[in-house]
C-alpha cells in the first residue's frame, strides 16, 4: 500500500475509487470538464455535463448531489451523536479518521458528481462505523 492509499473499513478505497469513478471508467480527464476555451482551469457546473450528455443527465446529476448531501448529513449527525468521552483511545482514533475522510469527501466540491456510487457507498459505510462506535458504549 502506498502513502496515498488509506484503508477504510478494511478496503483500499483509492483502488475502489477508480472502480466506481464514472469519470475514470469513461476515461474522461479533469481538463475535459474543468478547462475553459482559454486553457484556464475553472469550476464547472452541471451545464458543462450537457456538452457530452443529453438533457436528462442534468436531472440525474442533481439526484446524485441530493443523495450526497443527505448522506453527508447523516454522517455528520452520527458523528455528533457519539459520546467521545466514552470511547477508548483507539476508538477516538477511528472516529477522527472517519471525520477526516468525511471532510475530504466534502472538500471534493462536486457534491458527489465525480464519484456518485463511490461516495454513496463510502458514506453509508462510514456512517455504519460511527453507529457501531456509538452502540459499543451504549450499554
Topology at a glance:
Elements lengths: L6 E2 L2 E2 H8 L1 H5 L3 H5 L11 H4 L6 H25 L8 H19 L8 H21 L3
Antiparallel strand pairs: 1-2
Secondary-structure element series: EEHHHHHHH
CA distance, first residue to last residue: 37 Å
Mean pLDDT: 78
Contiguous uncertain segments of 5+ residues: 1-20
Briefly note the structural class of the backbone: mainly alpha
Shape call = elongated
- Helices, by number, come to 7
Largest sheet: 2 strands, antiparallel
* Number of DSSP-assigned strands: 2
Give Rg in angstroms. Answer: 17 Å
Strand content: under 5%
Strands across the major sheet, in which order? Answer: 1-2
**Helix proportion of residues, in percent?**
55-70%
Structure description:
- Helix content is 63%, strand content 3%.
- With 139 residues, the protein is mainly α.
- It has a domain at 11-25 and 56-136.
- Helix 5 (56-80) packs parallel to helix 7 (116-136).
Concise summary:
By secondary structure, this protein is an all-alpha fold.
Task: Jot down its keywords.
mainly alpha, two-stranded antiparallel sheet, 7 helices, 3% strand
